Each structure stands twice: as structure tokens, then as C-alpha cells.
């Protein structure tokens, strides 16, 4: 059974929306990082999905692997930053970290 | 001629003394007098051998170029001819004696050293005048004397009368000096030389420009009118008696005022060439002699009497010059220097002894001040023209010249001679004879340093006339007229008249004042009008005050007002204008320029205040905005 393209795109959209809402609303830095993973995965789904209908199916899948690799690196850096912030400010709640405020 | 060049040192010694006394007066203190006297004595020591040389027949002359004016050199130098030698003798001798006298007279005064500094400066000026060989140097030294006269008249400058007197003297003589300076310029234009030695030839060459000669002579004579106190500029001399008495004797009787007569003698070639100028000079001299004698009749201040007597005698000399008897004028200058200096020093001695200058308070001083009284008597006899004292011979010469020149002059001068004898013995009798009129005055004789010079001058007053008398075959006249043979007529009528007039004056004075002031006052009442004229000095001071000083003051006030209103107004207006302008400019700066700058700053801040609200610091806000923006761009971009 072939899942229709629209369904997959809809699923990807929902996943991206959930991730976006998570990024914008979570107060916990770890939560935000997890939400970013969701966003990236939504994109991956999109890439894989479009690769099926493209003339060069391998390109989309290769792209998805790169994104996964970069996501792992980004998550590592992000976690490192969170740990560093926790050490200096004793919290990971973003509403308590307003260093950029005017 | 190497030794003759020492003549340059004659005036320089007193100048050196002046410099020492004025700069180091506070250190030399009471020794200042010895520096001045010593300098004068050194001048004598150089001058007298030279005078002897001149008498022996030489003329010392040396000059050097001082200033090159185009093609003409202005030369400075000295000229010692018989004329200069005569004056040099008088000035060095009388000057030194009076300075010795001043040691006693000024003892204990404040500013003692300054007084002697001024005296030395005066000696420098006077000796410079005497030995200078041209009009320019003459004029410079002449002005130095004028300055000293001013300084010394105002020596007691804390007294208002002295301060005013010195101002008056300076300003009045200045009027004459302006004429003198113009005369020098005119002479330079006319003759192209200022040298005394070349003057005679230069005038001969320009004989044709008669008018110019007359004008030049009269302009030069202006200097004499001012300095020698001739009518109408004589008013300063009586007031000049505010100065210390030695000053009156030295400067305002014996030497400086006589320098005017010397000037006429130096300019004599010009006067000989112009009959009109000579006549003006004779008239001025005669009028001065007569009016001053009239005023002297009623003066009650001992020094004022002598001051008017000085003016009168100077008038005599000037009149002699005008009458063509230059030698007689210089002769009288010399004799007058001795007896008038003696009179003033005697008066100073009296003032020193009694503490008053008012004749009405004196009287009966003869037994108390023997030296002063005897020498004063000798001087009075000399000035009254009693033979064989000095004044007789010189006065007789002048009367003789006037007799030849014109009857009117002769009568006026003879009358003056009578008046002179009268007022001098009025002075003598009121001072020394009779009974003391003020019991509070305890007179005492003056110290030796004062009476010493008196006696030397008294001897001089007796003897200096003799070289010019027929007893000595008119040696003095031949000396001055060297090279020209002149007749020496002896006119017994004139001589006997003059003796008779002198004796009559003396007798009348004894008669009137022997018993004190009573008879004189009675006479004054019966001759009220002439007495008032004499008492008020012909109202000349008042006339000057009304017609010269008052308009001048009015003009000064007007100009002051003009200054205050217009000139100051303009300055203040400019100031106020600038102030107003700066206020406007300041306002513009503050509100427009600064306003613009501040507005820009404030506007920027206002905007920043709004825009910084976006800077929440919540990372998610930023992300939301980025997201919204991406959605927005995608939405419109794709469409």
C-alpha cells in the first residue's frame, strides 16, 4: 500500500507545527532542544517523501542523512550550552535567562 | 685745544651729581648736598681757567656733527666767546654759592637729596645753555631748565599754592617756548644754520628778506618773553616764589630768567638787522620794567617784592637789548645776578630767622641779624643805583642807551629807577629798621653756611660793576665787543639824574616808612585808585582768568562733555550693541543650533525607547518573530 503524498505532507506539517509550538512555548531549554529535534525530523520526513517523487530519489535521502548528522551535532552543542548556562545561572528556564534584554 | 675740550665736562659734572642724587638719594641722604656742591665746584675749576683764556683773547669753539639732515649737518658743540664766558663766570660762581647757602637753608627738610638733585640738574641745563654753540642745543638745555623750574617751584607739592604755581609757571613759559621753537625753525629756513658763530654772516647774506628776519627775531624773542617773565607772560614769576628761597634766588632771579636776556644777546645779529623787532623788544622791556616796579610798590610779601623787582630789572635788560645796547644788557645781567641773588638769599635768611614772609610783621631786625642786614643793605644800595656799587654802572649804561634811542624810553626807565630805589628801601626799612611789629617773632641770625655766601655775594655786588665803569676805561664793554672799537661816551647829565633819582627814592622811603606802616597807609588812602591798581597787579591775572582761563575751561568742559557723550557714547554704544548682538547670537546658538542637535538626540532617544521594547530578552520572542517573518515572506513571496 502506497501512502499518498498528501498524507505524508500533512503528517510532516503536523509534526513541524508541534515542534514549532514547542520551540516557541516551552520554558525549559531541554524541551526546546527536543522540539527542535521534532522540527528537524519533520523536515526529514518531507525530504524523504519528496525524494520518492523526484527524478533523483537518492538526493533527498542523502539530504536527510546530512540533516540527522547535523541535528546530532547541534543537539550536542545545544546541550553543552544548556549545561554551561546551568552551571553559571543555576537554571535552564528560558524566562529566567534574559541576558539580551534592553 | 685738548684742554679746551674739557669744556664738555662743565655741564656734565652737575649732571653726574643729579644722577647720583636722584638714584641713590636714599643712601647718600645728608651728603647729597656735598655731591652737588662738589660737582659745581669741579665745574668752576674747569670753567675758570677757560674764562681766563677767553679774557686773554682766545675763543674756544668745537663742534661735531650730531644729526645729518639731508645735505645739512646739525652740529653740537660749545662756543666760549666773551659773552659765554661772562655768563659762565656768573652761573658757576653764583650757582655754587647758592648751593652752599642751600645746605644751611634746607637742613632737615624732607626730600633733601632730591632738592639737590634738582639743583644739579638745573646747573646742568643752565651751563649747557651758556656754552652751547647753536640754537638747538640751547633750546634743549633751555627746556631742561624749564623742567627744573617746574620741579623746584612745586617742591612743596603738598601745598596747593605751590602745586598751582608750578603748573602756572610751566604752562606760561610753554607759551613762549612754542614761539621760540617756531623761531628756531624759521631761522633754519631763513639762514640754513643754527650755529651762533655763523649767524652773523648768514643774516648778512639774507639781508633782503627783511620781513622774515623780523618774524624770526620776534619768534625767538617769544622764548625770552616766557622765560624772562616779560609782559604779558610775566605772571608766573611772582607765583614761582612758592619754591624754596634758594631756588628763587638761583633760578628765578640770578640765572634762569636771565637766560632769556642771554638768548636775545645770542640772536643779536637778527635784531640788529631788523629795526622793527628791536623796537618791539625795547617797548616790551620798558613796559615790563615800569609796570613791575609799580606793582612792587605795594606788595607786602618780602619775596613778592623781590619777584616784581626781578621782573622789572629783566625788563631793564631787555629794553637795553632793544635800544641797541647789547653790552649794557649783559652787563646789567651780570651785576643783577649778584645783587638779586644776594637780596633773595638775604630774604631767605630773614624768613629762616623769623618764620614769616609778611613785611607787616617784621621790623627791627637789624640788631638781631647783623650779617643779613648789612649785606641786604649793600644789595639794596646796589639795585637802587648808588655809586660805586654794581647796579649803578650797569643801570647807567642802560639809561644812556635809552637816552640815545628815544626820550620816552629814557623817561620810563628813569621813573623805574626811582621806583626801584623807593620800593627796595621800603622793603629794607620795613624789615630791618623801626620797632618789631610782631612780638611773637624771635628772630635769630642764620648759620655760617648761609651768611658766608651772603658776604661773598655782597663783595661781588660792590665790585662786579667796576670793570664796566669809566674808572676801568670800560674794560668790560671792550671785552664783550672784542674786535670792534666803540666809543664810550660819558653823559654826566644822565649819570647825575640817575644818582639823584636813586637817592630821592631812598630818601622818600625812609621818610615814609621810618615810623612803621602808618604813613604808608595814609598815603594809600589818599591815592586810593592808583593804590588799587598796584595792589591788584594791573588786574592781569584776573584778565587772564576772565578772558583766557575761563573760556579755556569752558572749552575744556565742552570737550569733556563731548568726550563723555559722543566719544564715550560711541564706545559704550558699540559695547551695548555688541552685547545685544551677542545676546541674539547666544539665543540663536542656544535654541536653534543646540535645539536642533538636542532635538535630533531626543528624537533618536524617543524612537529608541519605542524600538527597544522589542528587545525582550526572551529567545522565544525572537524566534516567533523570525518565524512570523518567514511565514510572511513565504506567503507573499510565493504568491
Note the gap between the termini of chain A. Answer: 56 Å
Largest sheet of chain B: 2 strands, antiparallel
Oligomer type: heterodimer
Helix percentage range of chain B: over 70%
Q: How far apart are the first and last residues' alpha carbons of chain B, in Å?
A: 130 Å
- The number of distinct β-strands of chain B equals 2
Biggest sheet architecture of chain A: none
**Most extensive chain interface and residues per partner:** A-B, 14 and 11 residues
Major β-sheet strand ordering of chain B: 1-2
Percent helix of chain A:
over 70%
Q: What fraction of the residues of chain B are assigned to beta strands by DSSP? A: under 5%
How many H/I helical runs of chain A? 3
- Mean residue pLDDT of chain B: 88
Shape of chain B: elongated
Shape assignment of chain A: elongated
Work out the number of β strands of chain A.
0
Q: C-alpha Rg of chain A, in Å?
A: 17 Å
Find the structural class of chain B using helix and strand composition: mainly alpha
Rg of chain B (CA only): 37 Å
Care to describe what's here?
The complex is a heterodimer of chains A (102) and B (639). Chain A is mainly α and 102 residues long. In chain A, 77% of the residues lie in helices and 0% in strands. Chain A is built from 3 helices and no strands. In chain A, helix 1 runs antiparallel to helix 2 and helix 2 (29-53) packs antiparallel against helix 3 (57-89). The longest helix of chain A has 33 residues, at 57-89. The model of chain A has no long low-confidence stretch (mean pLDDT 89). Chain B has 639 residues and is an all-alpha fold. Helices cover 75% and strands 3% of the residues of chain B. Chain B is built from 26 helices and 2 strands. In chain B, strands 1-2 form a two-stranded antiparallel ribbon. In chain B, a hairpin with a 2-residue loop joins strand 1 (60-69) and strand 2 (72-80). The radius of gyration of chain B is 37 Å and the shape is elongated. The termini of chain B are far apart. The mean pLDDT of chain B is 88. At the A-B interface, helix 1 of A face helix 26 of B.
